[in-house]
Amino acid sequence: MSNAVLKEEISPPKGRPRSEKSKNAILKATNSLLLHKSVQELSIEAIAKKAKVGKTTIYRWWPNKTAVVMDALINQPGMQTPLPTPRNNTEAVIMQLEKLIRLLQSKNGEVIAQLFSEAQTNPESHKIFENSFLSPLIDAIAFSIDRGKAEGEFGNTFDTKTIVDILCGPIFFRLMAHRPDFDDAFQESYPRKAVSLIRAN
Amino acid sequence: MSNAVLKEEISPPKGRPRSEKSKNAILKATNSLLLHKSVQELSIEAIAKKAKVGKTTIYRWWPNKTAVVMDALINQPGMQTPLPTPRNNTEAVIMQLEKLIRLLQSKNGEVIAQLFSEAQTNPESHKIFENSFLSPLIDAIAFSIDRGKAEGEFGNTFDTKTIVDILCGPIFFRLMAHRPDFDDAFQESYPRKAVSLIRAN
DNA sequence: CCGCCGATACGCTACGCGCAGTTCAGAAAG
DNA sequence: CTTTCTGAACTGCGCGTAGCGTATCGGCGG
Fold first, then answer.
1. What local confidence, expressed as pLDDT, does residue B132 receive?
2. Cα A119 to Cα A172: distance, rounded to the nearest angstrom
3. Nucleotides of C under 7 A from a protein CB
4. Do residue B116 and residue A120 have CB atoms under 8 angstroms apart?
5. Alpha carbons B180 and B191: distance in angstroms, whole number
6. Would an 8 Å CB–CB cutoff place B193 in contact with chain A?
7. Cβ–Cβ contact B134 with A under 8 A
8. Is-contact A121 B114, C-beta < 8 A?
9. Cβ atoms within 10 Å of A142's Cβ, excluding its own
């Protein structure tokens, strides 16, 4: 956080500084390669080659492939579009679900599904995926639900964590189990219906 | 299916028959290695070495690693325990969900999650996983739901496919996103509550 | 009934390939 | 002059394929 700034202020960086040019080249090359390859097919060597950069330069700054891809994904144009302010918590959750589905329907959705997969194998990757993607998503929805509970919009039959699972699980399940059905009709109808399920409870 | 029998009746197999001993050794070695390795870490070479079998013997009978692991998983003791006959469709679905969670809680659950992941990358693996695991599971639940709809136990707000997603999605999501919470309490409470959600609709 | 033949499976070894992850010497920035 | 970055070279592993000699089946001719 501001630690970095603080650190720089106290002790100005010694030695040669990190090359921003190389960093950008790596992220750009990664995004470019991901247009034609899956995350698993992607190799660090290919990234290094395309970015005209040594492999070491990549390994120095990222612990593994997942981290590189995650970074490339986030530092992409139009990734942080904020939501309009909702009128109530029910609507907030619906909009968050819609946003999630929209995101997963794009080319990036494929990449995210692959990162999710990678996370199943590698604990290190799991942490990165969780911290960079899953937790922010879940926390945001959980927050709206908690507030909705407090304000009487949602019932208390399920604990918040389970409600999040019930809302998000089907989205990921459909994406990963039968992607052909992950279509516009689903995006259109699912969020409202899913939320209506838990409104009463 | 019976095609195999039919084929044998028409043209009895020529040449040296497949060695059941090798087949069993391969499946056993696979299961054994999976106790300490992930599916992705598992190598065909390691299986061959442990089973004291030529690599070619494996490649001859299985198209890829996923197929071997899937086969090893199915041909495991206590894998096909039939369900007791339910009194109604609601109960049938509950029992199926309980069975699924129980299965995923065992060591096999980890392996299945990894196979699910592998399926995201490789279309070939996806087909195998779908045919051997996902489809049977989904079809069974869908059948109960359809009958439940016809008999008035369930409503028609959601189409059957979406209901299956709503019931199964959270299970896989919790397994893959935050396994620590995939515990006994979840197994105990989730199926009944989840089904109760869709009873009214 | 015996023994050979074609067909297929077997275990084994070896190969080329691609990628992971590390080492090293030197260049670049302060 | 010190610190850090950088790319090339190196090591090791596993994949998937090919070829060798051997084992085991059914069928056929003697």
1. 94
2. 14
3. 6-14, 18-24, 27-30
4. yes
5. 18
6. yes
7. yes
8. yes
9. 16
* pLDDT in the model for residue B10: 54
Q: Are residues A24 and A67 in the same domain?
A: yes
Mutation site, A40, A114, A118, A120, interface B, largest B CB count within 10 A: A120
Six token digits for residue A179:
């992607």
Q: Which residues of chain A have pLDDT under 70?
A: 1-13, 200-201
Last residue of a domain, one of B74, B106, B129: B74
Q: Which domain holds residue A110?
A: 89-196
Count other C-beta atoms under 10 Å from residue A26's C-beta: 25
Q: Among partner residues A38, A157, A170, which is closest to B166 by beta-carbon distance?
A: A170
As a whole number of angstroms, the distance between CA A62 and CA A132 comes to: 14
The CATH number for A41's domain is 1.10.357.10
B63 and B100 belong to one structural domain = no
- For B12-49, write each residue's pLDDT tens digit: 778 789 899 999 999 999 999 999 999 999 999 999 99
Q: Distance, in angstroms, between A24 CA and closest chain B CA?
A: 27
Residue A127 lies in a domain: yes
